[in-house]
Each structure stands twice: as C-alpha cells, then as structure tokens.
Design goal:
By secondary structure, this protein is an alpha/beta fold. It has 2 domains: 55 residues; 163 residues, no CATH class. It contains 11 helices and 6 strands.
Length: 245
C-alpha cells in the first residue's frame, strides 16, 4: 500500500508548493531523483490525493471539496462528436446553461448550449450543425437577438477567447474557472444570470469544488475582469488559498 504519511504534515495548510511536498517526503525518509519526484507528483494529482489550486500551489482535498465534474447532456455529447468528426483540429468548448443549477437559487428550466469556437470559424461550425439541428442555431447573436430567438436546447455559437482554460480530461468541456469568469463577462450570460446570483454562485463553487485560482485570475485578466472578480470574492467572505495571481 502506498505510504502517504508525508501528506499528513501538509493537510492543515491551505496550500503548499512542490518544494514543501518534497521536504515533507524527505522528513518521512523518502528520497528520490527529480524525475521520480515529478512522476510521484503527477500520480498524486491524477489519483486525486492532491489538487492544483494555483501556479505551483496544491492542497489536499478536504471538507467535501471535489474536482469539478459535470455530467453533460446527450445533446452536448452529440454536438461535440459531430464537431470532432467534421473538424478534427477545431478548438472549441461547450457550456450548458443548466450547469449553473447547482449554484443558483432561480433554477434554469430550459437548457441552452454555448459552443465557443476559434475566431472566424463560427461559420463552418454553423454549416456543420444547421442540418442536424434546424432552427436551433444562433451564430454570434447580440443580446437582443439571443433573447428574441431563445428556445429550449438552442445552440449558441460564440467566439472562443484565446488562452481560455482547457479541461485536461475532456478538452471541449468548459472548466469551472472559465464558467465563473464568463457568467460575469460574457454579454449573453450576464444578461441571463442576475447579478444578485453572483455571490451565491462563487460561494457554492468555492465551498464545493477546488478552484485553480491562478487559472481563474489569469483568464479573468484576459477578459478584463480580474479586479471585479477579486472584489466579488473578498466581499463574499471567501478566503483565497493563494495570493492573487
């Protein structure tokens, strides 16, 4: 059985670095090469023993914290498969409006898919999907068009922001960090989700899931909202595990 005693000395810390982990291992009599240490670190991450919360910052999941997972609808899976088959090199993400239901008070009754694709490729994606989902595709709509033609399971094609966070296991799945930023910065989402819901969304997300804070603020800065999101987090009473990145 894997000896994990060294993790016990790090359990009480809100976050720790690779050097902290290596020292803890040495204190428990574990000496290894740099290559072996990197391999062990990756195993700890992959097995869920530790999780990344920032740049060179990790924590041991506790108090019911989990890595964010969402069971996507069949529609999302079908759309993703169709895009992968027709555009194997396309960079895209899919976010379902219903994903917010576990975080908000006013539940989303009718789902919608937000498919973000590389700039200038939206037209190709529209052509690929329109035959399979007639009357259900909106290409780069403004807020008024979105609400005018909105219907259950509508598919909204938007532009993928460069350097958007990527899920390592399901590349097209929107990461939690991306969702937390987009609901505030994306005009369509911010017009759909009431601003009064923001504190609850962030509170529930941080209390239930491990958030990569470096990833969150890097993407927020890319979208010009890092200051606003930092203020929201502090006003909500949440404690960041790392310094603001």
């Amino acid at each position: 059985m894997e000896n994990l005693l060294y993790l016990g000395t790090l359990h009480s810390q809100s976050s720790f670095s690779r050097d902290d982990l290596r020292v803890a291992m040495k204190n428990c009599g574990m000496y290894m090469s740099e290559a072996s240490f990197k391999s062990k670190l990756q195993w700890l991450i992959n097995s869920g023993k530790i999780v990344r919360v920032g740049r060179n910052a990790y924590c041991i999941p506790s108090d019911g914290l989990y890595k964010y997972r969402y069971e996507h609808s069949k529609l999302s899976g079908d759309v993703a498969e169709r895009l992968q088959e027709n555009h194997p090199y396309l960079d895209f993400t899919i976010f379902e409006l219903a994903q917010l239901n576990e975080f908000i008070n006013h539940q989303v009754a009718h789902n919608a898919l937000f498919v973000s694709v590389e700039a200038d490729l939206g037209g190709f994606v529209f052509d690929t999907l329109k035959a399979a989902y007639p009357g259900k595709i909106l290409l780069y709509p403004n807020t008024n068009t979105y609400h005018q033609y909105w219907s259950s399971d509508i598919i909204v094609i938007g532009k993928l922001i460069t350097e958007s966070p990527k899920d390592r296991e399901i590349p097209w799945a929107a990461r939690l960090e991306k969702i937390l930023v987009d609901i505030i910065t994306d005009p369509l989402l911010s017009s759909t989700v009431s601003e009064s819901e923001y504190p609850g969304i962030y509170w529930n997300a941080f209390r239930k899931y491990v958030v990569d804070e470096s990833c969150l603020f890097r993407y927020a800065k890319r979208r010009g909202s890092d200051g606003k999101i930092y203020q929201l987090i502090t006003q909500t009473g949440l404690q960041l595990r790392t310094r603001r990145q």
